[in-house]
Structures are given as structure tokens and as C-alpha cells.
Amino acid sequence: MSELSWIFYDGSMNELHAHYRLLLGLDDQWQVQNVDLQMEANSVVIQLRHSGGKLCCPECQDECSRADTAPTRQWRHLDTMQFETIIEAAIPRSKCDRCGVKTIAVPWAAKHSRFTLMFEAFAIKVLHAASSVSAATKLLKLSWKTAHELMQRGVERGLQRRDTDPIETLGIDEKSFGKGQDYVSLMVDLEGSRVLEVVKDRSETSCDKLFDSLTDEQKSGIRAVAVDFWQAFRNSIVKQVPQAKIVHDHFHISQYLGEAVDLVRRRENKLLRSEGINDLTGTRQLWLYNEETLDDATQKQIEDIRQVAIKTARAWGIKEMFRDFWTYRSGAWAKKFFDRWYAWAIRSKLDPIKKVARMLKKHLAGLLAYFEYSITNAKSEAFNGRVQAIKSAARGFRNFENYRTRILFYCGALKMEPDFSH
Predict the structure, then answer these.
(1) What share of the chain is helix, strand, coil (3-state, %, to 5)?
(2) pLDDT digits (tens, 9 = 90+) for 352-392
(3) DSSP characters for 191-229?
(4) How far apart are CA 247 and CA 409, in angstroms?
(5) Which residue from 385, 409, 412 is spatially nearest to 176, judged by alpha carbons?
(6) In which element (H, E) is residue 406 found?
(7) pTM
(8) Residue 377 φ then ψ, to 5°
């Protein structure tokens, strides 16, 4: 190689080293020693070297001497064009009189991470935006396990950074986990539209753990909690935030009434089929509709069936009538309406309807609290839909902690990006 070629090559390499040094945000302690382009492996390895001198203890931040050097490590960085980029370095270890021998912190990666800060930040954005974790892993060229580790690290950072600003309204709900009667309980900040915490089971103790995620100041500021009729949750709310109003909303009540209508339908269908009448068979979904949303064809179908299925039609009418309860502007007028509706439901001679009516009367204070706070668990249920999609995409979760991580990653509104300030 000619002298001119050597000058050109040396100058180009110096520029390349300076380029990567700038991209990595290296301080004066670190230099780019070599850039190794490996064409067959479709990768580029950037080898870094510590410049020497005094070190800083990663624990107490005191200046100290050098003990030795740890074995060479590698970190995955953002791709350079189509090349997978790897950072490689042997990190010095400090000798601190107070903390002992410690591996120093590096400016391009967090402690114990196998990825640079830039790659972690990019991966979190891709995982959050992708249609599924599988799609993200293909884009990032990562294994499912590695992607989950990045999500877990992001969630841990996000929870540590979470603010302790006042929260006035909460939603507490449950979601199935695994098979059988396994559940998780979720706490949702209704105004902030975020899942605050996820715990295993749906007991009073598990609900207490949800409240443990809040500070004492936050708990004292809770004004209302939207919740189902589940007694374990109610007990915990009364104990943890006694000043808060318990609010029952139309979502769960519509669900209970819908189930009661279906139970009446199944019983009547069994009786009609014994008489050779099959009009009610396969109409379960039909009776879940709201009257004002029916198109002409569905309206006619219901009218035709009502001539035969008298009990089911009456149960559906009682369910539909209760929806007027939520249209009142004051609790006093809503209470008068409820008394009239309750009298009709109890006289209906339909045991499933009567059972739900008695349950609603027992919890009437929680129903009327809606007119004071106007909060619902609709956001909690929306998160439940997202949680179900997460569960389905992962084909179920055997490990609760993995399930919790995934829920908080996608629904926690957390600030999960790495800290570049150090």
C-alpha cells in the first residue's frame, strides 16, 4: 500500500472512530479502538478501550484507584444500515476504600444489561407499537425471552419513576388468569386512564395489595371507587379508603340483568321445546341487544318471538326498562324510579330477575352514588379487552409475573425508556 493510501486509510478510520464515538455519546474516558466489519456475519463490532486514569466508584461516586479489568463483554446496539452492531469492551473495576472492588458504570448501557441504552429505548418503542410481541421480535431480531426481559426492565424503571400526584377516582376489577377459577385483580386510575397495579387472585388480601401501590397521601385523596358487587373488594375499599364512596355502574348491572334474561330464556326454551316449539333456540345474543339499537329486521324477529316466549320477553322488557335509571340527573329522582322498577321486577314471577332485583336493592347506595360522581368501570373494562388480547396473543400465561409485566407494559402509561443522563 502506498504512503498516500496509508494516509487516506488512516484518516478514514479516524473519522469512522470519531463518528461512532459521537454516536455512542462517549466521554473522555472511552475511545473507539477498532471497528470490525464482519461481512459474513452481517455485523459490525465496535471495540472500545478505556483511556486509564482515576475511576469513579459506581456505588458512592467517590474517586478511587483501579483494581483490575473485568472480562470482555458485548452489548447489542442499534443496527448500522443493515448490519447488526455490537459494542465490545473490557470494563475496569474500581478499588473503593468504602465499597470494595466494583465494576464501573459505562455511559452506553445500564447495569447488568446486554443492550445499549439506545437499543433498549428503540426496542421499547417497537414493542409498544407492534401488533404483537412476535411481530416485534422479528423486527428486532430478538427471542421472545429477550424481548420479555427488555419489557420487564422497562416496567421496573417506569414503576420507580411513577409520580405520586393525587388520584381522586379508581376502578377495581378482576380478570381471568390461566385456566379454571384463577383470577388477577386490576386497579385503574380512571382519570389518568392507566392500570396502576395487578395482583394475583381476587380476595380481600389481594385488593389490599392493590392499595399498597399507593402512598398514604394518595389513598387519603381518593373520593370514589367504581367496583363490582364482589364483597371482598368492598371490604378492602372500606378498610383502606373509608372516606371514598363505592360506586356501582351500568356495565356490571347490565351484565347481571343480561345473564338473568338468558337464564329465563333457557328455562322457557326447554319448556317450549318439550312442546315442539323451537323459536327460542339460538337466540341468546338477540336478548342482549338494547332496544334502540335494533334494526327493523331484528325488531320484527323479537316481536314475532315475543308472541310465543312470553316470559323471556317480559324479562327482556324489565332489563330494558332499568336502563332509564341512568338517565336521571339526581339521585332522588333515580331512587323513585328504582322503587317503581323494583316493584315490577319482584311481581314478575321470574326468579332470576327477582334475584338480581334484590341484589340491586341491597347495593342501592352504590348505584345512587353514580349520580354524585358519575364514574364508571368502562375504562377498566376497556383495559380488560386489551388484557384479553395480550393473553390470547401469548396463548395464555403460566407465570403470573410475566402476565403482570405485560399488562403494565401496555396499559400502565409508564415512562419506561432508559435514563441517558448518566
Answers:
(1) 50, 20, 30
(2) 999 999 999 999 999 999 999 888 777 666 666 677 777 76
(3) TTTEEEEEEESSSHHHHHHHHHTS-HHHHHT--EEEE-S
(4) 28
(5) 385
(6) helix 400-411
(7) 0.82
(8) -90, 20
